[in-house]
Write a structure and sequence with these properties.
single chain, alpha/beta, Rossmann fold, 3-stranded parallel sheet, 4 helices, about 35% helix, about 20% strand, globular
């Protein structure tokens, strides 16, 4: 069955990957996360526009280069982005308070 896409429907996503230590990054953890995220995006018919990777970065704060780049990318591409795909919510942020961010100005 083919799903019809409305002209203004958002059909794209970005992927965010993170590991806490350099050792985890070296153990192909990032590759496994990306594989799962791409499979999920494919199942949901989402086109992956870009992948953002923070290797060896803590999730306790949002002061991560790839994370900040992701937020900028989301703001610049909000007209076509439907989602940001993450392997697990702990990859996004360790603290629930650090997680929710507003992408558009009030």
């Amino acid at each position: 069955m083919t799903r019809l896409i409305k002209p203004n429907e958002k059909t794209s996503c970005a992927i965010y990957l993170r590991v806490s230590s350099a050792e985890q990054a070296d153990e192909q953890n990032l590759d496994a996360q990306e594989k799962h995220c791409r499979e999920y995006a494919k199942q949901k018919s989402l086109n992956v526009l870009q992948v953002f990777v923070d290797g060896g970065k803590t999730g306790r704060n949002v002061n991560r280069e790839a994370f900040k780049s992701l937020l900028t990318f989301c703001r610049q591409n909000k007209h076509k982005l439907r989602a940001v795909v993450c392997y697990d919510v702990s990859r996004w942020a360790r603290s629930v308070l650090a997680g929710p961010l507003r992408l558009t100005p009030r």
